[in-house]
Amino acid sequence: MRGNPVDRLASVRSYDDMSVEMLRQRLKLLTEEKSELQHQLTACHLQIQQEGKAFHKTNDERRAYLSEIANLSAAYEAQRRQRSTQQRKTPGSKQMRGRHSSRKAEADSKKGKERKEGQHLKGGGVGDSAAQRCQETKLLRESWLHSLNH
């Protein structure tokens, strides 16, 4: 077919000018194209269904893993808190705290001497950096868990 496809009247005229045999060939060609397009449509429909099933299966597995990670993290945090509480209650832990506090006192006294000499240190010494690292680790863990859930 030649001419402007938008011009319907020209399209009708082109069919009027065609012989019956040419019209039959055209009809056969259009029928074959229709059949091919229907097969493609069916194949695409089946592919979409299969991909949908695969997506739902994968998404369900992801949710199960996230749930498992959350449960394990909660159990780990509970154990960590329990260990921390037990360490505070045991008599040996007071000695440990005493050692740490004496180390901190030594560090503070050294810091005081250095400040007298005109040097200023940033940070709060040994205890502050450990607390800061603990806080940063906790924030990272929370943001990681939050990103997994969303």
Radius of gyration: 39 Å
Give the helix level as a range of percent. over 70%
Enumerate the spans where pLDDT stays under 50 for 5 or more consecutive residues: none
Q: What are the secondary-structure elements, in order, as H or E? A: HHHH
Q: What about the largest sheet?
A: none
**Total helical elements:** 4
Structural class: mainly alpha
Strand coverage percent: under 5%
Distance between the termini: 55 Å
Extended strand count: 0
- Choose one word for the global shape: rod-shaped
Query: Averaged pLDDT, please?
Result: 80
In terms of topology, how is this protein built?
Blueprint: H1 8-17, H2 20-89, H3 91-116, H4 126-149
Textual characterization of the structure:
The protein has helices at 8-17, 20-89, 91-116, 126-149. The mean pLDDT is 80. It is rod-shaped and about 110 Å long. The two termini are 55 Å apart. Helix content is 87%, strand content 0%. It is built from four helices and no strands. The longest helix is centred in the middle third of the chain and has 70 residues, at 20-89. It has 150 residues and is mainly alpha-helical. Residues 76-133 are annotated as: Disordered. Residues 103-120 have a biased composition (Basic and acidic residues). InterPro entries: DUF4600. Pfam families: DUF4600.
